[in-house]
Amino acid sequence: MEIREVEAFLAVAEELHFGRAATRLHVTPTSVSQNIRSLERRVGAPLFERTTRRVSLTPLGERLLADLRPAYQAMEAALNTAHEAAAHHTASLRVAFATSMSRRISAEMVDAFRRSRPQCQVVRTALPTAALHAKQVPDLGDIDLFITWAPGGPAVLQAPGWVVGPVLATVPRALLVARNHPLAGRATVDAEELTDHPLFFMQSTEPASDRMAGYIDAWTPSHTPEGRPLNRVRHMNGPYVEELITTIAEGWLAHVTVEGLTEIYQHQNVTAVLLTGLPPIPIVAAWPATGHNPMVKAFVQAAIASQDGTPPLAGGRPGAER
């Protein structure tokens, strides 16, 4: 008996609907139907009664469900136990944070993970967000986990070969300006006020710049929330923050960014003003789609807890992975 047949049977038996079962299993309804028919051939009799209006279990299907469900749950429990055992034997987790991310945020996430998994060593480094877009399957060396920005939400961060996980936290927007800029010294600036000021707009020359386009547009929108066009000036090729800071210091461009950037890249002629009217930027986790470190789940759960105040599970089963 194939495991996919068992999973299809349990899903249809619990949902009593082939479409909902397919959604639950992340497959097509046709695939579910094929697996059910294959299982019925193995058994030698129908397991479901199907009409145009409803799906129900036959008496044989009800008996199989009663016998099969606890066996499947026991198998899942055994696999989870093995996964946890493997995680506890993992000596290290290599985590990269986006270069423009606040050290406070990265420290809070790492500290929360260390408290929940003290036996695991964290090796921390920094990478530009564009590293995920640089190649068809990004080569990030030995990185197990990348904590980075996802303006517009996780769907905007396209990363073939990598899983983009849940939102860990969000960070308010800020406007980076020179100290002699007309908007400098303000407590806040609303997005609608940006129409009269040219904005720094990064243009990537990476091979995957077409995939970068949605990311860049979400970071520096072309219009205000009320639909007024913004003057985005293409002023740099490549995602180099040091060059950005130097350009802003010249005084004529502003840059839409996040809080905390000036804590990392300090310049005597550059300051940041809180920007209202734009949604905060989400922080997400990304990890390799295959062969990922079993400690990834635990770090994601601890990182979320560090930002929302929920204590992470110490040695328990980590949060769900997407």
From TrEMBL:
SUPFAM superfamilies (UniProt xref): Periplasmic binding protein-like II, Winged helix' DNA-binding domain
GO CC, one annotated term: protein-DNA complex
Record's keyword annotation contains Transcription: yes
Membrane-spanning segments: none
An annotated Gene Ontology molecular function: DNA binding
Family: Belongs to the LysR transcriptional regulatory family.
Name this protein carries in UniProt: Transcriptional regulator, LysR family
Naturally occurring in which organism (per UniProt): Catenulispora acidiphila (strain DSM 44928 / JCM 14897 / NBRC 102108 / NRRL B-24433 / ID139908)
Organism phylogeny: Bacteria, Bacillati, Actinomycetota, Actinomycetes, Catenulisporales
